[in-house]
Design a protein that fits this description.
The chain is α+β, with helices and mostly antiparallel strands and 275 residues long. The protein has 8 helices and 11 strands. The chain has 2 domains: 3-141, Ribosomal Protein S5, domain 2 (2-Layer Sandwich); 151-273, 2-Layer Sandwich (Alpha-Beta Plaits). It has helices at residues 68-76, 97-113, 128-133, 168-174, 193-201, 208-214, 217-227, 250-263, and strands spanning 3-12, 16-20, 26-45, 50-54, 81-86, 137-141, 145-148, 156-161, 233-236, 243-247, 268-273. The protein starts with a strand and ends with a strand. Bound molecules: cytidine-5'-monophosphate.
Length: 275
């Protein structure tokens, strides 16, 4: 019997880069949420560890130790398993696909036979700890400091990727001032999607500008999203190129997604809620 776990897309509603460590890693202050769109990971006991990647976005995804899923499996250990990754999210796209897959593999293996989760998953990648919780959080440090944000209003999203892969180290390298203001010390409680979007409009993703320099298609995506009816906010997630639009309800998000697909049939466009 296989055990399955969902690997939701990770969305940085804000991403403030607040400094740079001596080892080159950047200090962040980011409001992270998880989307209803994502990959699926299933695990089944087997003679040896293995990984098979299937699904609409499987092409080019490694099935060897280059995949974070197998690195995570080796970290948690225990009875070997055959792992299947059903890939729906675009890779190298700022929504934590690889990190979320690795975190889902850990959750599935833990659910299978109760093997303990590793205490420190940060060495797998800066986004893995937040993806392991898969709950809205304020993420600080380089990803190790997590504070839950439990009371988010209901909001709908449209995720858009123009089909370009962006290199995270390259985007950080292009960031001219790695020392920006953090978010306010206390986050407010937002009564609805509009209040959340209004507050977010006063915050930033500091990687948006360098990512747009590396990949101008991101600017086109942001303009197209902002032009859709009912879009409360359009912003890039992580180091890009995936951008999100916020909408008050699923009908508005579905309509916007349909309009964007008509304009740009080659883009990846997904309407969803929060996970
Ligand atoms: O940890 P992860 O593999 O996600 O990071 C990829 C690269 O992105 C790092 O090697 C580093 O160049 C950059 N990065 C950074 N600061 C962070 C996260 C990532 O500079 N907080």
């Amino acid at each position: 019997m296989a055990t399955e776990a969902f690997a939701p897309a990770k969305i940085n509603l804000t991403l403030h880069v607040t400094g740079r460590r001596d080892d080159g890693y950047h200090l962040l202050d980011s409001l992270v949420v998880f989307a209803g769109a994502g990959d699926r990971v299933s695990v089944e006991p087997a003679r040896d560890w293995s990984l098979r990647v299937i699904g609409p976005r499987a092409e080019g995804v490694p099935e060897d130790d280059g995949n974070l899923v197998l690195k995570a499996a080796r970290l948690i250990g225990g009875v070997p398993c055959a792992i299947t990754l059903d890939k729906h999210l675009p890779t190298a796209s700022g929504i934590g696909g690889g990190s979320s897959d690795a975190a889902a593999a850990l959750r599935a293996l833990h659910a299978l036979d109760g093997r303990p989760l590793p205490g420190d998953t940060l060495p797998l990648g800066a986004d893995v700890p937040v993806c392991l919780s898969a709950r809205p959080a304020r993420m600080r440090g380089i990803g190790e400091r997590l504070d839950p944000v439990p009371d988010l209003p209901s909001v709908s999203l449209v995720l858009v990727n123009p089909g370009v892969a962006v290199s995270t180290p390259e985007v950080f390298r292009l960031l001219s001032t790695p020392d920006n203001a953090p978010m306010p010390p206390e986050l407010p409680q937002w009564r609805d999607a509009t209040a959340l979007a209004d507050w977010l409009a006063g915050q930033r993703n500091d990687l948006e500008l360098p990512a747009r320099t590396a990949e101008p298609a991101i600017g086109v995506v942001l303009s197209r999203l902002a032009e859709t009816e009912g879009c409360l906010l359009a912003r890039m997630s992580g180091s890009g190129a995936t951008c999100f639009g916020l909408y008050a309800d699923a009908v508005a998000a579905d309509d916007a997604a349909r309009a964007l697909r008509e304009l740009h049939p080659d883009w990846w466009v997904e309407a969803c809620g929060l996970a």
